[in-house]
Design a protein that fits this description.
Shape: elongated
Largest sheet: 9 strands, mixed
Radius of gyration: 50 Å
Structural class: alpha+beta
Strand content: 25-35%
Amino acid sequence: MPGTVRTAATALALSALVLAGLPAQAATAQQGGGTASDRATAAATTQPSTADASEPAPSSAPATEPGAAPTSGSVSSPATEPGPDPGTGAETVPAPGSVPVTEPGTMPATEPGTSAPAEPLPAVPQTGAPAEGTVPPSSASPSPASPSPNPEPERSQAAAPANDGREAIEAKAEELKLVPHNEFKCGLAGDGCVRTYTSEPEGTKRIAIYWSPATGAHAVDLQHYVGSVFKLARYEAGEYGYPASDLVTDGAGNASQAFQHGKISATRGELAVDDRARELRLLPVNDFKCGLAGGGCVRSYKPSASSSRVIAVYWSADTGAHPVELTHAVGKTYRAAGWEGGKLGYPTSDMATGLKGKGARQSFEHGQVAYSPATGAVPVLEPFLAAWQKRGSQDGSLGYPKGWAKTTAGVLHQPYQGGVLVAGSAGVSVEKTHVFHGQRALDARAKQLRYVPVNGYNCNLVGSGCVRTYKYSSTSTARVALYWTAKTGVRAVNLKHAVGRKFAATGYERGGMGYPTSDVACGLRGSGCVQPFQKGQISYSPAAGAHTMSAQILHSWKQRGGAGGALGYPIQDSVSRSGKTTQVFQSGSLVAANVGAVMYPKNECWALGAHKTRYAHYWKDRISFAISEKYGTYKASFINCVRVGSVYRQEWKTTKATVGLSGFKKPGVASGHTMYRWSPQGSFSVTESFGEGNPGTGLAYRKLNSRSQWSGTPGGGYNKYFESSFNRWPDEQMYNIMRAPTGDYRQGAVINYNRPPDSPIRQGAGFAIFLHANPVPTYGCIALDLSNVTKYLKTAKPGDRIVMGVRADIFKS
């Protein structure tokens, strides 16, 4: 108001008494021609002691979209409001000065008729409770608590003239039906007198009735906004002087009271906000901000001076006064929505807490904000609010909203825990979350690729996935399946490509690969292609074919250079056998370990796992090779292989091995009589062994004695062990051979050629095919150094096999 002034003393008192339960704005007095002004209100004309604080009024509305700049016409920027950001949830510290601090030298009055103390009063403790002896105001006041039952100290009554206003004061009290609260205090400035009353003997109201010769007797409600400003200005000794009228309330709910040197007034909104703040026992952190949209008002508060919580109390004529906790997730979302000038409007209720799942909810003019720890705080506006409420709000099948409403592919929708609300021409409908997102994602990708659908959607897949089959054009014979899940997005699988056919063979998304996580990538080394899936990868090359790879194998394969590395492409699917996951590649094998995988190089043992041998090995734990590089030679290599899962690793090898002097017979051709010195080709089991003493083998062991023989005589005992003291040719005298200087039979194993369990015995097909010591040309056996024969026996078990023959006949290319 033009011409209004504020004294320095009043300004200091404003700052000092905020934490004592007094308003943060001071009444102002207009002085001129010796008459009082019509109105002096701090909210409309001056800044309070907290005006320089960084805490603004939260009434300025930012743009309607979260994160946008404030709309034009905003008086203050709500973005600086202390408290966590609604988008990030990060807490911010209230700006310094947002809570007024008592200044040194501030001298608030202690009660009506009491002059200021000579020394500064001690600072009021910053707690949620008012300081003893203060009177909380009844309107736009920062008082956090109900007034003290006895806010004014008792005083001794001084002697006073007979006509000092006491009768007038008592008459006024009788008119107002008041009960005395303390004694008269007369002899005030200008010969005035005062007494404080209440409405009943133990009531909490405090009404001071003043009298002076110049003004007569008038009541001041010390718990009303006007009374709190009057008190803050040091009662009758301050800038306003004595009351010149009682409190007047007009038809609009505004209140004012005239004093000797001015008028104190408050609007309906300020009074409502202040009353609600007093009810909630809050302390102000800034001034009123009125004149908002629809004539509303707001002021920010804290539960106590030390609290980090900030609560804005809003009022409008249509909604009444309601608090919004700005530092709660609900308040942050309200701020992001544009405060009272945004999408939500004014609050129409307080925040309800303790809901399902530790949730909270608050209603506003245009919607609600719903919060749960699982979903955060999300606004629910029309057209979805009515549909959500119809289905039981957070207690219904939809649960809490999971995100703001938005438009996707021209469709307005909002996600909830139990589905998606979709706005359409027929109203709001509910769709399953994965169905809504899956179908639209598939449509968008198909449109991008210009695919033509050949069937409908299928969103009943495992893991809430969706699929639809397309072709490249209306005349195309290709078939491409577009798969979608929330985790993998939309990925294409060409069902006519080798990779797609392999994916189908595994059982599609239900099988061992899961959903595709990327499209197929081709043009790799050797015209290869790869496509990753949730549980591994399918790799393809024309030379190796299409094969699956488990995740752990895949990781190690990539570490070794993938298709361009030393291993090349897989030539088999990854396999789990005997607790091991293994895979055979073009140039080696991988065995999954605790971390990564162990690589075995490409060699004769690799060929077993790669199915590159012509003779069956039956996946026995130990397979040994006796290999000659060509026909007609007795020289050979002996290689011992051990199974690991579905691959084999080389345990040891010696090139100092021999076979029959004539070499190997052709595959399937019997070796015949030992005198011809041929060795048979094939894959044979090993079940028993013999020699001078058991070296610790797992095979059945026979210690030779002087009667030990092996029959080469046709008949029932052909190609069998027997004992006899009678010696005849061609039976082998095993004991004598053992005792010979060369020691051939000191240790040996029986190779089950032409005998059970591998085959029935055929007379004359060959006999006494052993693995024994002394590597010199033999009569058809395999011979090694004694140490290697012993090494073999120590690890052998019944059922182990020996594959023997010429390399070209044993291995496939």
